[in-house]
Amino acid sequence: MRLLLSVISRRVHRAAVHTGTRRGLSSSAGRGPSPRRDDALVVGSSRELVLSVGSQVEVRASFITEEEEGALLKELEPGLRKKRYEFDHWDDAIHGYRETERLRWGEACEEILTRVRSVAFPEGSPLLGPVHILDLDKAGYIKAHIDSVKFCGSTIAGLSLLSDSIMRLVKEDAPSEWLNLLLPRRSLYILRDEARYNFTHEILKDEESVFNGQRVPRLRRISVICRNLPAETPTSTELG
Ligand code: OGA
Ligand code: MN
């Protein structure tokens, strides 16, 4: 799965923080049983930036219940426990992690994933079959990177289990433009289109985990990530 990542060098931390209320803007959020995107969970270097990303960045608090989190953990923990956290590769995009992929799920988990897919992906969008599971140790973190455009499509949707965390997005060609997303435990985040292609994303290490002036302790965190496939490139016959 590390093939999916190309690390972009980390950028320095920036100061100004703006929240942007996006009330009244139409968005694809609000479908399904979960609450609408929670704007208080997204802050950025300017109000304009927060507004302009619009529905390309969504965080939905309490997307799953405690019971559903338990069902996912019950299914994932036995496999994860057999692996060791990897810390030693200095050039990796991810530090202090173990990971796996899962194609087949029990009924309870399948139901959760169906809900994730129905809110996150355009209808009919072909999805990457296996779901990616990333288990970050308390000391683990994910460096700034952009998911491979060769292997992943326009949308990335992730559930956060066991811990709150902060995801930072930085515009690739304008590093002074950034967003911080507070990802509460049991929330779902969705990155689409430009937010996925033109911004790096990272998960901050515990020591740096501060949202809007508020310290957010980063414990062990498991993410359950669904992705779609890249749009098919036309074949030479289709091009005529
Ligand atoms: C990744 C990634 C984020 C997360 O694996 O490419 O960015 O929520 N993961 O774990
Ligand atoms: Mn990624």
UniProtKB/TrEMBL annotation:
Protein name: Uncharacterized protein
Organism: Scortum barcoo
